[in-house]
Amino acid sequence: MPSRLGSTLARSDVPVAGPGELILSEVFGPTFQGEGRSLGQRVGFVRLGTCNLDCGRGPGATWACDTPYTWDWEHYSPGDELAVRSVDDVVAQLTDMAVAAIVVTGGEPLIQQRRLVPLLRAAADRGWAVEVETNGTIAPLPEVVGLVSRFNVSPKVRGSGVPAARALRPRALAAFGDTGKAVFKFVASEPAELDEIGRVAARWRLTPIMIMPAGTTADEIVRVARELADPVLVRGWDLTIRLHVLLWGDERGR
Ligand code: SF4
What we know:
It is a single chain. The protein has a single domain, classed as TIM Barrel (Alpha-Beta Barrel). It is built from ten helices and nine strands. It has helices at about 5-10, 80, 85-95, 115-125, 140-145, 165, 170-180, 195-205, 220-235, 245-250, and strands at about 20-30, 40-50, 85, 100-105, 130-135, 150-155, 180-190, 210-215, 240. The protein has a nine-stranded mixed sheet. Helix 3 crosses helix 4. The radius of gyration is 17 Å and the shape is globular. About 45% of the residues are buried. Bound molecules: iron/sulfur cluster.
């Protein structure tokens, strides 16, 4: 049986992108940024395919990835889920949305960070702010740092089921901290997980910290957020809801 990483990245039917192209899961919007510091902002989303982690599949996981269709080739077909598109084509679609900001997400978008540079340059030329949502395992290239407004870095702790040796990469985490553009956003499903997040944040000097409740339904998100709110305040951290789940559940492309 292939390893999960192998099933994610090495399948022969995962498309290959050439110069000026990206491996995409979906481009959608206008919609609202559903999480983090820009919550509620009208944006366009660019979701890239493939990931180097497998959240929710390992032992002890308390929550699961909400975009497994970008990487889980044991349950989804890359031929159905991924497409190679030119950056020019993506920029044209985003231009039609008439947004002032875009969110580049995944999967893990920095797997394709060299190919992302032309898209980031096009965004800068048009005055679009760019947020990149990343799991924090791949250090950003200097040209990417220069073109991104904010990195929403989401390091994975035990509740993800991903071993720490794969999920927490010191050099990459330090690189994000050094950008001065990173917010470290941790998923939690119960207050007991906050102690581990605090230890990870202290060990790798991660700041600022934002906590996001796990959940794929509005009821679950609100319940977990209410449980987390006071303990998060006590620790001096921020809390984000998941607006898109409150509005549209787990519907894709919203
Ligand atoms: S890092 Fe993100 S996209 Fe990748 S498996 Fe984990 S939650 Fe899903």
